[in-house]
Amino acid sequence: LATIPLFILTQTTTLDIPVMNMTGMDATIAVYIDFNKDGVLDDTNEKFTAMVADGATTVSVDVLVPVTAVVGQDVGMRIRLANDMAEVMTSTGQAMSGEVEDYMVQIVGFDYGDLPDTYGTTDPDGPKHIVTEDLTLGNCVDSEINGQPQGMAGLMTGGDDNDPGLAT
């Protein structure tokens, strides 16, 4: 891949993968991402496939990042291309055709605000930034799927420093 886009918690990322299929028949591509970082590319929960038409030079694969994905750490991504769907149904093992490529990618999350929603705290225009462990305000930074509006902006309960969100 020339450029790997961001994989954002709870969002769909479209990978545009350069391919070459000159076999005279359709092929299959599978993308595996180790979202839980357990060292195993799960064939059911971490696999995304697409058909690669004969003569294709690019294929798009949509990857939905689950809310349970590990945020801010390197995780493995494997891409397999083969003539036969059965050959890419598993992340490991021999295939009689095709190619395998491995990459390290990161899943990112957004940290949102806590002010009451009259301040425009929630999406689509809610203030947010990509979580990084290098920048924090208060005790921690956390990843959320939307703003966390509260009357006291998290001063008494909840908020960034009192609610760990999805990932801290």
The overall pLDDT average reads 85
Main sheet strand line-up:
1-7-6-3-4
Main sheet attributes: strand count, strand direction, barrel closure: 5 strands, mixed
The N- and C-terminal alpha carbons lie at a distance of 30 Å
What fraction, in percent, of the residue positions are helical? under 10%
Strand pairing plus helix content: what structural class? Answer: mainly beta
Radius of gyration: 20 Å
Task: Note the run of SSEs as H and E.
Answer: EEEEEEEEEH
- What is the global morphology? elongated
Outline the fold blueprint.
Blueprint: E1 7-8, E2 12-18, E3 27-33, E4 47-52, E5 58-64, E6 74-82, E7 99-108, E8 110-112, E9 128-130, H1 159-162
Give a description of the structure:
The protein is an all-beta fold and 168 residues long. The protein is built from 1 helix and 9 strands; from the N terminus they run βββββββββα. A 5-stranded mixed sheet has the order 1-7-6-3-4, with no helix packed on it. The protein starts with 6 loop residues before the first strand and ends in a 6-residue tail after the last helix.
